[in-house]
Amino acid sequence: MLTERKDLRNVAIIAHVDHGKTTLVDGLLKQAKTFRDNQQIVERVMDSNDLERERGITILAKNTSVIINDPETNTPVKINIVDTPGHADFGGEVERVMNMVDGVLLLVDAAEGPMPQTRFVLKKALEMGHKAIVVINKMDRKDAEPDRTLNATFDLFVELGANEEQADFPVIYANAITQQAGETKELSSDLQPLFNAILKYIPAPKVDIDAPFQMLVTNLGYDDYRGVTAVGRIFAGKVSAGQDVARIKVNGEIVPEKMKYLYTHQGLEKVSVDEATAGEIISIAGLEGIGIGETLADALNPIALPPIMVEEPTVKMTFAVNNSPFKGREGKWSTSRNLRERLMNELRNNVALRVDETESPDTFIVSGRGELHLAILIETMRREGYEFQVSKPEVILKDGPDGKPLEPYEELHIETNQETVGIVVEMLGTRRGKMLDMVNTNENTVRLTYLIPTRGLLGFRYQFLTATRGNGIMNTIFHGYGPYTGAFSTRATGSIVAWDTGPTTTFGLKNAEERGTLFVGAGLDVYEGMVVGERAQPGDLTVNVCKKKHLTNMRSSNKDIEIRLTPPRNMSLDEAIEYLEEDELLEVTPVAFRIRKKILNTEDRGKMTKKAKEEVA
């Protein structure tokens, strides 16, 4: 028999990246008296991952809860809150947490309106049948247009196929930074109107407490003392600490388990409990080997829940054991066994990732939702002490109904100033982009909407920021698969490649600097085949950057002091991945990352280039 748990609400906060989700959660936690009055709290407290703090984005979905008083019934109500990523590359996180909640808060920037990732996350929520509360945030912006934003949001609901009930959404206006909200544009002094809206419009869980126990695992974590923790929502029945349960794997295999440690979320803490009932989001520790999408069920009546469905990856890279001359010098974990174990462990909680083994035991094909999705994995592994090498990202092609290849397409949204719009349009034209819309805004900027092959966006972001002098904004969302558009070049420059192995010299680098932009400074160790700079013209140039000036009675080494080099270009990991060409690899270590040629020997590389030209001719 279904009963309504009026003492509980489960809600996810969804939005485009940087529209204020995590900041709003900060405000909800503070105003619900989650923290002590004298407790020191950092900003964006839910972004606990180092990479999240550095990049200012949410990468992993996280759970928290607040307890507030229902003014109508004067009883406490627990609100479980899930903070989700706003970037489409981490859509796997969004897709799986939608199984845990009964409604969503959709944040929209009052000035920017609905953005590409707004469409993505809202589509997932509507597909699950969830009711949404629209929160128009950042009302303090000078260019805020809440009426236009509201109309655009309603149009988006209709466009995404929202039913009549979903399209009749309540609206709350807010300013997350000052922790104010209101049912009208006149904000109150606190977030109480938002709390009231959650209690009024987010449905209470309807559950069958007497049915056999069922829980779907939607997230994994790790406890230093009790091992792997599995997070999920109890869909039916109840469970006690120490109870025997059945773990139903995705392939249908049933494994007997015991619920050793049982927790619920209170604020940012996990609190041990003896029992939990249907509707609650819980965390279980001590179940080794458990995976996302598996069902924990009653031991005597094990019934599996539908598995989590995640969209397929669109971009792939090869991860391989580092075989450069510097291998083993800087990494803690560098063997094929280490690499394989780490990638297989990542599959347990990164549901949107795919790892395929190749004929070589040292090489793996890793597929993800985009360049950023894979770059975050690479950076995480690097910080953990792993040393490996990766290839240029490639799109994953599919065969169409007629046997012809199909490739993924992205919907690209760009905002740039009127002075640079011409060069941006030219760049996108060479990358097979098709313009869908062009709008002039009130702020002397131009908004462009393009449909472009995913291949055209590989390596585009850095060139775009350079062309717009850092003022351009770009966002993408996966559109679907379309006809393969043929080969095209995404880089008009070549590489400056080291001829010899050894420390670089000022004399050698000066010769190279005259031909392009350097990536390395003087006194750094390089090896033959390592890329040390970017050439202005297409084609590679091999230079001896270790060359020393011969000394005679007429020439002194002190003359080198007079040589002044331009500071080298320090590339971030994302820029280095974007820079790669087909014949190049990125060597990744905890200390550095180095771009190199796949064939290091200069003579062998020359023979391969000559052979390729002869085949074309």
UniProtKB/TrEMBL annotation:
One of its GO terms (biological process) is ribosomal large subunit assembly. GTP binds at residues 18-23. It is found in: Cytoplasm. InterPro entries: BipA, BipA_C, BipA_GTP-bd_dom, BipA_II, BipA_III, BipA_V, EF-G-like_DII, EFG_III/V. It comes from the Bacteria. GO terms for molecular function: GTP binding; GTPase activity; ribosome binding; rRNA binding; tRNA binding. Pfam families: BipA_C, EF-G_D2, EFG_C, GTP_EFTU. The keyword Repressor does not apply. Keywords: Cytoplasm, GTP-binding, Hydrolase, Nucleotide-binding, Ribosome biogenesis, RNA-binding, rRNA-binding, tRNA-binding. Belongs to the TRAFAC class translation factor GTPase superfamily. Classic translation factor GTPase family. BipA subfamily. This is Large ribosomal subunit assembly factor BipA. It comes from Leptolinea tardivitalis.
